[in-house]
Design brief:
By secondary structure, the chain is α+β, with helices and mostly antiparallel strands. It has three helices and ten strands; from the N terminus they run βαββββαβββββα.
Length: 169
Amino acid sequence: MRARAWGRMQTTPTAWTMSERSAAGSTNPTSRQPVDVAVGVLIEGGGRFLLTSRPVGKVYAGYWEFPGGKLEPGETVEQALRRELHEELGITIGAVEPWHVELVDYPHALVRLHFCKVFQWSGEFQMRERQAMAWENLPVRSRPVLPGTVPVLRWFAAERGYAGPLHND
């Protein structure tokens, strides 16, 4: 089944996750090399998680996602995540718990998303790229949600025994 993007913007981010491709019977989605991306799933004490909007000037500006960014040459996922969250949000994170890896095929890039849970951080949040932030629960109210974010919402639902809608797009 094809993942659908909701909301408005210059181009609609239609994407396949690799688990969706496998279910559809396609095993060789593309010959493109994946771009590795470290993604922080920040979870506060009450269980809410942080989403940020993609800033103006970036592909899919205005769509909501978990914060993070590309790995630089020689960086580990944890190093990239620490650097990206400091650069984007102005925080210093504590322990990083690798959680899931998902390959997402967007029209502009094949990305390998390394999702890591983070429960501790220090510093005041500073939206250094003029993005917005929101602490969310299921269903997510911020919209539109980037397709690469949806698998995380499914994983949260499974962990939490939640059976309702994942987001309101």
